[in-house]
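Model the whole thing, not chain by chain.
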Amino acid sequence: LAKTTQPISMDSYEGQEVNITCSHNNIATNDYITWYQQFPSQGPRFIIQGYKTKVTNEVASLFIPADRKSSTLSLPRVSLSDTAVYYCLVKGYGGSQGNLIFGKGTKLSVKP
Amino acid sequence: NAGVMQNPRHLVRRRGQEARLRCSPMKGHSHVYWYRQLPEEGLKFMVYLQKENIIDESGMPKERFSAEFPKEGPSILRIQQVVRGDSAAYFCASSLDSFLGGYTFGSGTRLTVV
């Protein structure tokens, strides 16, 4: 499973766009990139998943360059409630390896 | 759909006792995963189960820990003879299959060993 590297923490202000970049240099051909959000005392919540180029949903956008060695989670106009830890994970399709490997994530603090 | 249900939410055990953590996956989900999280740490994978089968237990400690997902009923994570180092938040997740979409996590069981 590919290892990921992301900033330990980021600060932002309400209303700003936040971009969190994740490096996954040894991503495999069949790996997908997934982002989760975790609030204190809660389980992680799935945000978005992608394979290449750009994916957008009602919560966020995910940008993946052609070489797929990195990805960027974009949160538009953050609010105080977006303060959380954000995890970037890569996982391949198929086989018996069903587990996701979580790193320490990026602790995003949104200030008023 | 109530999502992934874990109980109890909080569990206090004395050293040497047994802890039993329960997880009911989302309706229709047959894949269950258990993770452990220490304070200020990321989640550590423990075990992946499908109905009546352990698929991957590479993250389970060799002793005292066991997991099951019977044909009927919730998945159970059992910790025998608990020690203070077992104090952590234990999260269960479920999925429709082992890959597509995301995993749905429960709110966790916070185990405190005194």
